[in-house]
Every structure is written in C-alpha cells, then in structure tokens.
Write a structure and sequence with these properties.
Elements lengths: L1 E2 L13 E8 L8 E5 L5 H12 L7 E6 L6 E4 L5 H5 L17 E6 L27 H13 L4 E4 L2 E6 L11 H5 L12 H15 L3 E6 L6 H17 L5 H17 E2 L7 E2 L2 E8 L5 E9 L17 H9 L2 H7 L20 H18 L3 H17 L3 E4 L6 E4 L1 H11 L3 H9 E5 L4 E5 L2 H31 L2 H5 L5 E7 L11 H32 L12 H8 L5 H9 L6 H12 L5 E3 L6 E6 L2 E6 L3 H5 L5 H8 L4 H7 L3 H29 L3 H4 L20 H4 L4 H11 L20 H17 L2 E9 L11 H11 L1 H10 L3 E4 H7 L12 H10 L7 E3 L3 E4 L1 H49 L45 E2 L2 H16 L9 H12 L21 E2 H15 L8 H25 L6 H10 L10 E5 L4 E2 L6 E2 L4 E5 L5 E2 L41 H13 L13 H13 L11 H13 L11 H8 L4 H12 L4 H19 L1 H4 L3 H12 L8 H6 L1 H55 L18 E3 ...
Parallel strand pairs: 2-6, 8-22, 9-18, 9-22
Antiparallel strand pairs: 1-3, 2-3, 4-5, 4-6, 7-8, 10-11, 12-13, 12-18, 14-15, 16-17, 19-20, 20-21, 23-25, 24-25, 26-27, 28-31, 29-30, 31-32, 33-34, 34-35
Helix pairs in contact: 3-28, 5-6, 6-7, 7-8, 7-10, 7-14, 8-10, 11-12, 11-14, 14-26, 16-17, 16-27, 18-19, 23-26, 35-36, 38-40, 38-43, 39-40, 40-45, 41-42, 41-47, 42-47, 43-47, 45-47, 47-48, 47-49
Subcellular location: Cytoplasm
Family: Belongs to the TRAFAC class myosin-kinesin ATPase superfamily. Myosin family.
GO biological process, one term: actin filament-based movement
Length: about 1450
C-alpha cells in the first residue's frame, strides 16, 4: 500500500485500485487523501497510512466509513475488515480518482470522547429508540441521529415521542400509501419509527379509551412541521375510511393545499414556511368513522405582504397566479409579470421554478374544487389577489400649486376600480383623505405622503387578511357535518397542532415576538406533560424516584404576558395614548422590566431589546410595534368596499356574517320577484309577435349585464343561518378587526396581541382536555440543502428542546401506569380467584411471573410498569384468554356430545321397551364352530328375529353353513329390520310371532332372542342354519305352555321362511361378487391393516385422565380408561375401534400419491382460466345444492369428525375420485367451511380486513353496501370469482330458509369467521371485538345478493307470464295449421289418404325391438323417447287419429317456447 499524489499511481503486483479518503475532522486538513489499496490491506492499516500522510495526531482514535453516495448512507468498517473487498464491488470508473459528487469514497473521522476522558466508540447498532442507547450523552444522541439520517431514517423514537429530522427532500419510500396499512394496528415500537405509527396509535387510543387525542408538532422554522402535519392528516383520514373515500375526506385533503397556497411563503429558513398557526381538529364517531373537521388559524403574518427581507418571497398564491394563469385569465384579471409589482419586487424576483409554479396553479384549482369553490367564486378570489398586488403600485404626489395629495397612475386606479367594482372617485378619496365621524359633524382631512403610503399598505393587508378569513370560513363550512346541527351525538376528536416555529431573523419585529411567545407557551405545555406532571405523580405515589431537572420557561412567559407589567400589557397601554411613540414605549419597558434577567435593553440609542428565550437570545426592533398592534380594517376601506358592485366583497367586510346572510336572502327574494315581473312584461309585449313570427322567444334571464344574480351565491353556498352562526363562532377568535363610521362609538377594537393571547388561551384549554402525543421536528441544516446534516445546528436543537432530559425521564420512568382497580379489571384472568385490588395480590403476580423488580413499582394507589413488562403482561393475558377459550370450546363440545349420547341412549331404551318384553333368561346351546379350543377372542352379535311366513320343512338351503362374518352380520341386520317393521293388519309376520311368544311368557321387558356366536375377525365361523333352527325350536318349546303346544310348529315354520328368503339372497350376492384376491394380496393387505400399525399410524397407549371422545365412533373415552393415540397425526380412539380405521395417517402419507394439495394453499394456485373456481369448492357446493338445500341446520350442524377426516384425505389427493354420495350432508358442509378456514389468506383478504370493518361502520345502509362492494372489486381475481360462487351458493341456501332454517344472518354468523378473519391472531380480544362487524359485512353481501336475486326472479316470472300469454294466443291462431303438420309427421293423411313412411315430412328412426313394444315402431326425430307413434298400413291410419291428436296437443304445450321463436 502506498499513497499517491492524485495524478498517478504506483503499481504493485496485480491490479491497481485507488480510493479517496476524505477526513471529517475539526482541524483544517487536506481536502482528501488518495490511497492505493491491495488485497492484504486492512482498515486499521489504511487508517494509519492516512493519519501519517495527513499529519494528524496519532494518539487519537480514528474510524473509517464507506460512503457510496455523496451525503448518503455511511457504513462503518471494522479494524480487521479488508477495504478492497468493498472497492471491488464499486463500478470500475470509481476505483480510480473521481469527483466526490460521484460517491464511492471513504471517510476518516475521529471517534468522540466524553468529558471523563473515556472513548465513545462509533455506534455500530442502529437504535430505533434513543432510550436503548447504552450511554445517553449529547454526543451519543447526536451520533445516533446522524447515522440514521444518512441511512435515510429520518424518524427516531424516544419511548412514545417521535423525533423527525427534515431531510429537505421528499422521500417516497417513507410515504407510500402501503405504509398506512403496514402500521395499522401495530404497537408503537414493533416496526421502524414512522409518523404514521404515531397517527395510528393516537387513533386506536381514541377508540379504545374513548378520550380525545392531540398530536403536538414542535420545532423551529424550517424543521418540517407543515409537511409532518400534512402526512398526519392524510394518515388519519386514511385510517377512518381507507380506500372508500367520501366527500368529507376529499374536502379535508383538498383544504391543505388551499390553505398552504394562501398562508405559506418561501423564507430564508424554509421554502414552504407557514406564516400562521393552525389547529386541525378531526371529529370522529365512536366507531371511528370520520364525521367532520374544524380548522382554526392563528395570527396571519400580514406584514409580509408589503415588506420582507430580500432573500424571501411573498405568499405562494401570487406566484402561482402570475406564472400559471392562461392568456385569457391574465387579460380578465389584469395580470402582469412579477417584477412589475412593488409588493413582489422587493426581494427574490428571479423565478427559476416557473414551470413548477404553473403546475402548482393547476393543483390549486383542483384543490379549490375539492373544497367546494364555484368557478365564479374562484374568479372573485383571483380578482381580489390582483387588486391587492395593484394597490402596491399606487403612488402619491403633492401638487406644486395647491399642495393637494394626488394618487396615480391613472391606469392603475382604473384597473383597481374595475377589479373591485367601485367608483374611481371613491377609491381615490379613500386612499388620500381621512374621515372622522363624530356626533356633531364629519371631519375630512388629507393624508401626508407617508400616511397615504401607510394607508395604502394597510388597505392591502386588511383586504388580504379578510380574504384569508373568508377562505377559512368557507372551508370550515364545507367540513361541517349537518348532523352536528341537528343531532346531539357524542363525538371523539384528534387534533393536530402546527404552530409557528421559533424564529430569529436579521430583523425581528412584532410578528416574531408573537410567534416566539406562542412557541414559549407550547414548550411550557410540553414540559408540564413530559416532566412536571409525570414526576409529581411519582412523588405523590411515594415510589422511589430521583428527580430530573429540566428547563422551566415560565419566567419568559410571564415577562411577555403577565398583567400590568408584561410586555404585551405595556404595549396596549401605549397604544391607548394618542401622543405615544416608539421611543416612549421603549422608555416604559426600561422602567418596568429592566430588572428582569431575561430582558436586556439596548445600551445605545438603537430602539431594540433582547429577550432570552428557551431556544436562544432574540433581538427585537421596536419600530412599528404600536401600528402593528392596532392594525385593523379602517372605516374608509370598509365604506369603500361596501359600495362595491361585487357582492363577494360584501362578505369580506361584513362585521356580522349572520346579518349579511339575512340581507342576502331578502335581496335574492326581491331580485327574483323583479326578474319574474320583467319577464312577464316582456312576454305580454311580445305575445302579438308570436302569431306573425315563427322564431322562438328566449326566456333566459341569466344576463349578468342586465340582471346580475351573483347574489344568489349567498343562498347556494350556505346551508342555513344556524350553520353559519356555528362556523362564525368557531373562527371568530382570529378574524380581521373592522372599524366602521359610528358617531357614538363607545367600545374600542381589541388589539392584535390581546386577540392573539385570547385565542392562544382557548387553544391551550382545548388541548389540555386531550391526551397528547409529541413530535419534535429538527432542522438538519441552515442552508436548506438536501440530506445534509449540520452537527452544530442539530446539537443546539437537542439542547434547547430538552431531548436529553426527555430520554432520561423516559428511560428511568414508567410508560404504563394503572390504578389498582384498573389493573385488576384488565388482568383479572392472571390473578388468582378471589384476588382483590390490593398491592399484595399484584406483587404476588409479578413475583410469579419473575419480573425484574427494577421494571415496576407499586405506589399508594397505582401500579407503574415499563413498556416491555406491560407488553409481556398483555401477551400473557392473550395466551391465558386463548387457553380459556379452548377449554370452554372443549367442554362445550363434550357437553353437546354427551347430550346427544344421552338422547340416543334414551331413544334406544324406548325402542327396546316398545318391541321387546321381559322373558326368562335363556342360554343357547353351543353351536358348532371350527377351532373351538383356540384362545382367540370371539364376538357375540345380537340377532333379532323378524317376520316368518313359511311352514316348517327341512329344505336343502338349511344345509348351508355361515362361514363368512359378513354373512352373519347381514343376517343380524336383516332380522333386526324385520323385527322393527310393524305388523300389517291381517298379516302373519314375525312381529306377530313376537307377540305370540310374549303371550307364552306372560311378562314384558326382556329380549326375546339373544344368540351368542363365538366369532372372531381372524377366524372363520362355521355355523349351520340347521343348528340355528334347532335352537329356535327348543326356545319356542320352552316358552310354550301346555295349551299352546299346537302353535309351536306354526311359529317355527314362520321363522324358517324368513331364513329361506335370506339364504337365497345371500347366494345371489356371493355369485355376483368378484373373484377373491390371491394369497399374496391378502398377506399384504393384512400387513397394512395390522392393528399394531394400521394404515401407517403410529399408535401408543396411554391412560386417560380427562374425558375425551373417540375420533372414530364418537363415543366417550372415560377417565382411567386406556386409549390409543397416533403420535404422528394425533388420532385418538378406543382399542376396539382400531379395526375401523380406513384413512391413512395424514402426516405420513406417501409423497408419491398422485394429485396435489387442495387444502391450505392460496386460491390463485387452485384456479385457472378453465377453472375460475377451485375444483374442490365447486364439487362440494354443487353436491350441497343438489342434496342439502332442504336439510335443516345445513352448515350450522357439524358432521362426524372421522368421516370428515376420511373425505378430507380423499379430496386432498384426488377430488375426482371422491364419491360424495357415501357421506352425510353435514360432513360435506363441514368440509366447505374447513377449506375456507385453511386458506393462508382468506377469501376477503387480510390486507382489506380493516377496510371491510370501516365500511360497515358507515352510518347509512346504502353507503355501507356501496363501500363493501367497492372493496370486493379490489380482491384478486381468484378470490373474487370464488367469493362470487360462494355468495351465490349461500343465496340459494337462504332461499330455502323455510325448510333449512338458515337465514342470511345465520349464514353470516357461520361463514364470517371463515372468509373474513383478523390478521392479528395473537390478540383474542381483538378478534372477538370485531365479530359483530365481520358478521354484518358478510350478511350485507348475502342479503344484497339475495335482494337482487329476488328482483331478477320476479322479472323472469313476469317475462314468463307474458311469454305464456303470447304462446296461448299463437297456439289458438296456429292450431289448425300446426295440428295438420303434426298429423303429417305422425303418418296421418291429410289431402292424400294413402301416406307411407317414405312420404313423411319429418324423418323417422326405427327403435330397436324391446320387450312390450311392437315391431315397426318409430320415434319421430326431434321428439322425446317417451312419445312415439306406430306406423301402420294406410288402411289402419284412421284408428290412430285420436292418439295423434292428443300427442299434438301435448307437444304443443311442451314446446311452446320453440314455436314462438320459430314463428317470430
């Protein structure tokens, strides 16, 4: 490795790579150090070489960082890292010398050291939360923020406080709309810091705690507060309605650009600086649906309109209008270039962004339309803006002869008169003469040149201020919800406070004092909430706490606003004195507050003073303090504008908007009557001309030159007087003061600072009632450069905002606190039964959970927890709730199964009592079996005897032996069915035999026949039917008495006839069965069905402690019994049920089985163009529609778990091979629900889950339906098609509600958890809370589709009825012709009596000979197989005439539709 001079390189073995190292050090060093690197060089070696080359202090510690973009992310290299490995990843042109603007270089920086002399290593870990820093110092906080800033991570948490550093550049990755969804329902800190996370947490806190919230944005000018508030508003409106945007959301989003255009400007610190304070309050219903909004503005900086620094601009809207207006608009509004206006030609007139300004003008038009401005209203506004600019071009001169003040130029005055619609003479008088009205007389005097210029500027400022007030009023009116005026529905709100940033300009005047005072007030509120109130709570609860000091700025606030001796109060006193001047005001300040340490008057004659604010010292120039404090719209201006012919100006100067509204209604009414009378006269005069002339009359009265009707806007733009009064009351605190001529005026107008203090107090009262969230915005550099981090500037902001103290208190404090009652109520499930709200029980819980004692404290009435411990408690609570839910579900299912079992048992007892009566005990003789001495287990089936009809005789069929267990089982079922058949009247059945045998015994209640067969599945039974008959004969003899001996033979003959019929049926069945499998196949089958491992299951025995149910037979496995459980698929069954298993182990099935998975995969995987709906779904739904629509409780009742598991395995691998007819309908319906539940992403996807919930929260039903269907359209195509098919199916089910008892609401309850599931399965409370909303959403879909279905069916029925009428009419008109045609088809002669088959018009096809059908029978082509005619010889045709006529009538009725189509 060697250094180079930058022009050449020294070559070594291999390829040469040169990198630049730029030192980032405090002392002056070389601009850069080019270094040649090789494969063996490490970072420490390169650092050593660079330190030697640059001549740096080798005793210090340095680190090396890689920068691939200029000003971008920087990656730290460890001491042992090889820089060449990173250089080789760079582009080839960057591996030699290149400008630093191209990126790809290394940075050498010194590691920081703290005051104790210990080295502070460069932070390697990226901390999202500054509370997690290992050491909290100003340097470590600054380094953490700087590293995150260069990684484009501009947001950082301090517990629940957000720090946002302005990058002076829009970062699209941060504000993609998907981020709103990503941060929705996420706890603070789970994802990377973001402003949307604060908005979501505030929104959820408002809904959960039902308390108003407030988000306070603080920071100096240029720190990005305006952009942050805009992002918050977008997110909060998005959380309310998501993709469903109503008119209110559009108005809220459109209001921002309009207000920014009229109230923001470019300053030295900020290109989009808000020159007024605003508080936006979004009102919500308790369900979270946005209801309305209110915008309150504070202290517009009007002085910027007429004067400002050279590096700054006027308000944005002027440049938008001048650079974006069309040619016609420029002529209409008399617009010139920016440099032609005095008010714009004072500073930065070079507009290098004129193209962007033109685009902003178009966006302004769109935003004004979103807010509700009419086209005529926009023209009025732009006319006023043009007039304001032209006022600055008015000049004043004194005539040399008469010394009369003259205004000019004439063309400017003429244009102003035209724009304001006032007379030129009145305009000149208002600008040049002062008018004083008293009770006795009116005094008119002339202004001086200086006074006239001041009057002109005052008129421009008051006119623009009144325009801005009217725009705010109109926007608030558009945001007003009518129900607020008609209903008393409680609302919640979230306020976003964006107040002025702290300012320290080159020349600071009255506006800067008001701005900094508001910033002081806001900082005091922040200190109270973060430091004082929190620490007071700790002290009052008596927990151990070390007090953390913070900067208290209460002294500065009292200096400015205290009564009698405050700066503002002294200013008001001076303003009330007619002879007061700026000098007298300065003298009073020195006398009254000179001793205050925060106030420093100037030591020289300069009229300035300095105030020590919490953010720094600010020097104020006292010039024009008095004028600006008493600034209002002068009476001359009010009188002039009231005389305007433009009604819009009347709104701007109205002292009482309510009175103006009433007068507008009256004027509009009079104007309407006048217009109608005028039109009536015109019609009367022209009535005679109508006879002679054919030209139509023009009855249009919309002629602005003859009858101006713009006054109607007073009516159209406002709802009613009540709404106007409400809006005026909201915005009255900061309206432009207007003075009018009044001879007996007693009250004085309120000064600007008094008005500002009153509005500020009202604001603080509002936000003190809400729960606050804080966002601190930090300015990254003073030059407004993109992605540049100024360490000194950022560090200064960290100091004066108290971020270090905030980290300490958030790190040491407890973010979660509950009263004892609140804690026990919230976490009762974690506490033992009977626990009360006492510290002992709560402490016992914490000790049981093994919480660190330093993470919680228990005070006198409250519990204090760290955030991690609170989250741990919440997670534990969620798990406990889920455990209890599962236990409840398990016991509920057990109770249901037990109830069904008891019902079946009672039913079986009733049946047994009904058909069996008590008989003496009987032990059948031992029947002949093979291998009787074998030790294998045997089975004893019960045989029930049925009806008998044959006489007793030994037939050859009785010689047959039962060698197959299946035959024995069939015999048992056959006889049981016979017994259960009721005896017919007059028939001698086996049931009659049962009653006869009961008479033999004389008692009831015992079984009649109970034959025990020593059988085993692994051994062939050998039972002879003769032995069975002998046993039966002995039984009858034992039961018969002496008098009934004659009936014994009859009973035996009856029984033998039954056996004979069964034997013949069994012989046929055996003959029809396929050949038996070979021995090897049997062995293999036996091996597969081995009870030790049937169908690949891995069973093991265990003793049951808690009652469970068998998955095969459904009966209980009681406690202390042994059960078998498969260790793979967890199948549980009795030992006796092992032989009944017919499904493979679900977790160990063969991977080579053909087919693919159909359960638990994405819907899009199972669909295609040919199959838009998954095969399994279509198969199951079709089967239910064919077989289950009339089944009571379909989809509500559950099927057999064993059968469902069996069918699931078949459908999983081979859906086409499944025979659904073999399964109960409830098993089929259960699999439909299982398929939906197993989807990884439900049909109504996770991404739209919250959207659907918000849609059903809308107040009106049509809005709910429209919102839900709009969201349905956003589903993926596969989900959309499948959901469409499912809803259609559910509509068919609901259509048969009279039979299946399943209404749309019942179906919604069943299917909502299947198709609309919560994405957050960890919190059970959240899922339970949304059950009603998800159910309502699905019910809306089913009900709406059901309604549309009934409407279509009704239309179809009406069409069918109309069609039937047409068919009948056509049938009557065409009956003779149609019948004649059918006779010819059937071989019936018409005019020709001799007709053969060859002459038939319709070809015939001969039907093959079948039993019961005569040869020569033909089927008419086109007819059904059930209708045919026999063709006979010609002489026999007449015998079939009547039959053919009947056939004709039948076919006419059947094919009426076809005949109509053919006829038309």
């Amino acid at each position: 490795m060697s250094t180079t001079d930058g022009t050449g390189v020294s070559e070594q073995d291999g390829e040469v790579h040169v990198v630049q190292i730029y030192p980032r050090l405090s002392q002056d060093t070389t601009a850069y150090c080019p270094v040649q690197v090789s494969a063996g060089d490490t970072a420490s070696a390169i650092i050593h070489n660079a330190v030697v080359t640059l001549g740096l202090d080798s005793s210090l510690t340095y680190c090396l960082l890689e920068a691939r973009e200029s000003g971008g992310e920087e990656r730290l290299l460890e001491a042992g890292d090889c820089p060449l490995d990173r250089v080789l990843l760079w582009p080839p042109e960057t591996q030699k010398w290149h400008p630093p603007s191209h990126g790809y270089y290394f940075i050498l920086q010194e590691q920081q050291a703290n005051s104790a002399g210990k080295r502070v290593e460069t932070i390697k870990e990226d901390y999202d939360d500054l509370c997690n820093l290992p050491t909290v110092t100003e340097e470590s906080v600054l380094e953490a923020l700087r590293q995150r800033f260069y990684k484009h991570k501009i947001y950082t948490y301090t517990s629940n406080i957000l720090i946002a550093i302005n990058p002076n550049k829009f970062l699209p990755v941060y504000y993609n709309p998907k981020y709103i969804k990503m941060y929705e329902n996420q706890p603070l800190g789970k994802l990377s810091p973001h402003i949307f996370a604060i908005a979501d947490v505030a929104f959820r806190a408002m809904l959960n705690r039902q308390v108003n919230q407030c988000i306070v944005i603080s920071g100096e000018s240029g720190s990005g507060k305006t952009e942050s508030s805009s992002f918050l508003i977008h997110c909060l409106t998005g959380l309310s309605q998501k993709t469903y945007s109503s008119g209110l959301e559009r108005t809220i989003l459109g209001a921002g650009p309009v207000i920014e255009a009229f109230g923001n400007s470019k300053t030295a610190e900020n290109n989009n600086s808000s020159r007024f304070g605003k508080f936006i309050q979004l009102n919500y219903l308790e369900s979270g649906v946005i209801r309305g909004a209110v915008i309150e503005k504070y202290l517009l900086e009007k002085s910027r309109l007429v004067s400002r620094d050279k590096s700054e601009r006027n308000y944005h809207v002027f440049y938008y209008l001048l650079m974006g207006a069309s040619k016609d608009e420029k002529e209409e509004f008399h617009l010139f270039k920016p440099q032609d206006y005095l008010y714009l030609n004072q500073g930065d007139v070079h507009l290098d962004d004129d193209e962007d300004l033109g685009q902003q003008y178009k966006r302004l038009h769109q935003a004004m339309e979103m807010v509700g401005f009419l086209s005529s209203t926009k023209k009025h506004i732009f006319s006023i803006l043009s007039a304001v600019l032209l006022l600055g071009n008015v000049t004043f001169t004194l005539s040399e002869d008469t010394q009369v003040l003259e205004a000019g130029p004439a063309e400017v005055l003429s244009t102003l008169s035209d724009l304001l619609k006032v007379k030129n003479e009145l305009l000149v008088t208002a600008l040049t003469k002062r008018r004083v009205v008293t009770a006795n007389c009116t005094v008119v005097s002339q202004y001086t040149l200086q006074e006239a210029s001041t009057m002109r500027d005052s008129m421009a400022k008051s006119l623009y201020g009144a325009l801005f007030d009217w725009i705010i009023l109109h926007i608030n009116h558009a945001l007003l919800n009518r129900r607020d005026m008609e209903e008393s529905i409680s609302c919640l709100s979230i306020g976003v406070l964006d107040m002025f940033g702290f300012e320290n300009l080159q020349t600071n005047s009255f506006e800067q004092l008001c701005i900094n005072y508001s910033h002081e007030t806001l900082q005091y509120y922040i200190n109270q909430n973060i430091f004082k109130l929190e620490q007071n709570d700790y002290v009052s609860e008596g927990i151990s706490w070390q007090n953390i000091d913070f900067t208290d700025n209460r002294g500065c606030i009292q200096l400015i606003s205290s009564e009698s001796v405050g700066l503002f109060d002294l200013l008001d006193q001076e303003c009330s004195l007619p002879q007061a001047t700026d000098e007298t005001f300065m003298d009073k300040l020195k006398q009254q507050i000179q001793d205050n340490p925060l106030f420093v008057p100037s030591q020289n004659t300069e009229p300035t003073f300095v105030i020590q604010h919490f953010a720094g010292r600010v020097k104020y120039h006292i010039k024009d303090f008095r004028k600006k404090n008493t600034e209002h719209m002068r009476p001359e201006v009010v009188s002039l504008l009231r005389s305007s012919g433009r009604s819009f100006l009347h709104h701007l100067v109205a002292s009482s908007p309510e009175a103006l509204f009433r007068w507008g209604v009256l004027r509009a009414t009079i104007r309407i009557l006048t217009v109608f009378k005028s039109m009536a006269r015109q019609r009367a005069e022209l009535s005679e001309l109508l006879i002679n002339k054919s030209e139509p009359l023009d009855f249009s009265f919309d002629r602005s030159d003859e009858h101006p009707i713009d006054i109607f806007e007073d009516i159209f733009n406002l709802m009613n007087l009540r709404s106007l009064q409400h809006i005026v009351g909201v915005t009255a605190h900061d309206r432009t003061s207007k003075s009018i001529f009044h001879p007996h005026r007693t009250s004085k107008l309120q000064t600007v600072n008094a008005q500002f203090q009153a509005s500020l107090k009202k604001l603080m009262k509002t936000i003190e009632k809400a729960e606050p969230f804080f966002i601190f915005c930090v300015r990254s550099n003073a030059e407004k450069k993109e992605l540049q981090f100024d360490n000194e500037l950022v560090l200064n902001q960290i100091k004066y905002t108290g971020i270090l103290q905030m980290i300490h208190i958030q790190k040491s404090g407890y973010s979660a606190k509950y009263t004892f009652k609140e804690f026990v109520k919230k976490f009762r499930m974690l506490l033992p039964k009977g626990a009360t709200a006492t510290p002992e029980h709560i402490t016992e819980l914490f000790e049981r959970m093994e919480l660190d004692k330093s993470t919680y404290q228990i005070g006198k009435t409250k519990v204090f927890l760290k955030e991690k411990e609170r989250q741990l408690l919440q997670d534990t609570l969620n798990k406990e709730v889920m455990r209890h839910i599962i236990i409840l579900q398990r016991w509920f299912r057990a109770c249901l199964i037990r109830l069904h079992f008891l019902e079946k048992r009672d039913a079986s007892v009733i049946i047994q009592v009904q058909f069996f009566f008590t008989l003496p005990s009987y032990t059948p003789p031992p029947y002949h079996t093979a291998n009787q001495n074998s030790g294998r287990a045997s089975r004893n089936p019960t045989i029930r005897i049925s009806r008998a009809t044959r006489a007793l005789q030994w037939d050859a069929s009785l010689d047959r032996e039962i060698t197959n267990p299946k035959e024995l089982r069939n015999l048992d079922e056959f006889l049981g069915n016979q017994v259960r058949s009721p005896p017919g009247k007059g028939k001698d059945t086996l049931s009659c035999l049962h009653w006869r045998c009961a008479c033999f015994e004389g008692k009831n209640g015992k079984q009649l026949y109970n034959f025990s067969w020593p059988l085993c599945d692994q051994q062939k039974p050998q039972i002879g039917y003769k032995d069975l008959m002998k046993g039966f004969h002995n039984k009858v003899n034992s039961l018969a008495g002496s008098k009934e001996k004659g009936e014994v033979s009859l009973v035996v003959n009856l029984f033998q006839s039954v056996l004979d019929g069964f034997i013949r049926g069994e012989i046929k069945r055996v003959e029809s069965e396929p050949a038996k499998a070979t021995k090897t196949t049997k062995k293999r089958r036996k091996k597969k069905q081995c009870p030790d491992s049937p169908l690949d299951h891995l069973f093991s025995t265990y003793q049951v402690n808690i009652m469970q149910s068998c998955d095969l037979c459904g009966s209980y496995i009681w406690g202390m019994e042994k059960a078998y459980m498969c260790s793979a698929c967890k199948l549980i069954c009795h030992k006796k049920c092992l032989k009944q298993i017919i499904t493979d182990c679900s977790t160990r099935c063969d991977d080579n089985v053909p087919g693919s998975l159909h359960f638990g995969v994405q819907v899009c995987v199972l669909t295609s163009k040919a199959n838009p709906v998954p095969k399994v779904v279509e198969l199951l739904l079709m089967h239910v529609e064919l077989n289950g629509l009339y089944t009571e409780g379909i989809y509500r009742k559950s099927g057999s778990a064993c059968r469902a598991r069996e069918l699931h395995q078949i459908l999983e691998t081979n859906p086409e091979g499944a025979c659904l007819d073999n399964y109960p309908i409830h098993t089929i319906s259960g699999l439909v629900k299982r398929w939906l539940r197993d989807l990884p992403d439900p049909l109504m996807t996770f991404s739209l889950y919250s959207d659907f919930l918000h849609a059903v929260e809308l107040p009106e039903k049509p809005e709910k339906i429209r919102a839900v269907y709009k969201l349905i359209e956003e589903l993926p195509p596969a989900n959309y098609n499948t959901l469409e098919r499912l809803i259609f199916h559910l509509v068919r089910v609901a259509k048969e509600e009279d039979h299946n008892k399943m209404s749309p609401s019942s179906l919604a309850i069943v299917f909502a958890p299947c198709i609309l599931r919560s994405p957050d399965a960890s919190d059970p409370f959240l899922g339970m809370k949304d059950v009603s909303k998800t159910t309502l959403c699905v019910e809306i879909l089913i009900s709406e589709q059901f309604r549309r279905y009934k409407e279509k069916m009704q239309n179809i029925q009406e069409l069918e009825y109309a069609e039937a009428l047409a068919v009948n009419q056509l049938k009557l008109r065409r009956q003779n012709t149609h019948i004649f045609g059918l006779w010819e088809e059937a071989g019936v002669p018409g005019e020709n009596p001799h007709m053969h088959r060859e002459n038939m018009q319709t070809p015939c096809r001969k039907i093959p000979g079948k039993p019961g059908r005569e040869p020569g029978t033909f089927l008419l082509q086109g007819e059904s197989a059930n209708h045919y005619a026999t063709v006979q010889p010609p002489w026999a045709i007449s015998h079939y005439r009547n039959a053919c006529l009947a056939l004709c009538v039948h076919e006419t009725e059947k094919r009426g539709d076809q005949h109509i189509k053919e006829t038309t």
